[in-house]
Specification:
Length: 278
């Protein structure tokens, strides 16, 4: 629709990474901070006791959404609530145990932006850390990929004012409360915008552009899903543990837990592998 009228359009990407707009920043600032304030002599014994319990056998809680995954992440954070671990728990879909069970042999861990040492200890806050990680990973590898492909598919140039390095460098030097203030995300940006746009419009709940992958995989993509994750196909491939994949697939089809994104990752890998590696 935009391309019918113009050839160049402005986009607001990077606003979340620069001004602290994602919902997961609430977790970093609230739950992460609470765990860090708990003395280690209390955290570690609790984490040890959690390791003795099977979350799937805990009454009431085991029926909650993705309880097993949240339980495992909390157990890890109680051991070490560092900024890296909080960020990692918010970013990864598979727990370490699930990851190891999924492969036939232990996978090699590669260094990524998550493990870089550009940020020196003591020179940043928890909020600036998670924003820097999103800026280096989620923004270029997901958000900008999506916008660039969508816009260029119709020859529309998308310009990103929030990616101006002068703006980013200036905002990075501001105190955290200019970005995240008492639970208000993108605080400075909203205070400026309130002068021009009604507050009621700006204070609505954040809504992303998620796609209905669960619905697709149970309907339009079901045949592809059953083909690529077929137990015999997975076994012949020799990469994934067929029983682990079957368990994930069965749980997804029976609507147990939150395995949709995990299944989507497996489906995408299988389709890529068949096209380029077999």
């Amino acid at each position: 629709m935009a391309r019918k009228e113009v050839t160049v359009a402005l986009s607001a990407d990077a606003g979340d990474e620069v001004f602290a707009g994602y919902n997961r920043y609430d977790v970093m600032m609230n739950q992460g901070d609470k765990i860090r304030r708990t003395p280690a002599f209390l955290r570690k014994p609790v984490s040890g006791m959690m390791g003795l319990l099977n979350p799937e056998r805990l009454p009431y809680f085991n029926n909650k959404r993705n309880f097993s995954g949240r339980y495992a992440k909390l157990k890890t954070l109680l051991k070490d609530p560092s900024d890296f671990n909080v960020m990692w728990s918010l970013s990864t879909q598979f727990t370490e145990k699930e990851w190891n069970n999924l492969f036939m042999s232990k996978p090699e861990t590669l260094d990524t932006r998550y493990t870089n040492t550009d940020l020196k200890p003591g020179s940043y806050s928890s909020l600036s850390y998670i924003m820097a990680m999103d800026y280096q990973t989620y923004l270029p590898d997901d958000i900008l990929q999506k916008v660039d492909r969508a816009s260029m598919s119709v020859s529309l140039e998308s310009r990103e004012p929030y990616l101006d390095h002068r703006l980013i460098e200036w905002v990075a030097q501001l105190p955290d409360h200019f970005k995240y203030n008492k639970g208000i995300k993108k605080y400075l940006l909203k205070e400026i915008t309130h002068k021009h746009i009604p507050k009621s419009m700006m204070e609505r709940p954040k809504m992303g552009f998620a796609i209905p992958i669960d619905k697709w995989m149970r309907n339009e993509l079901k045949d592809k899903l059953l083909y690529y994750l077929d137990e015999n196909k997975v076994k012949d491939q020799g990469i994934f543990n067929p029983l682990a994949v079957k368990r994930l697939l069965d749980n997804f089809m029976e609507r147990k837990g939150e395995s949709g994104v995990k299944i989507w990752y497996l489906l995408m890998f299988q389709m890529w592998y068949e096209k380029w590696m077999e």
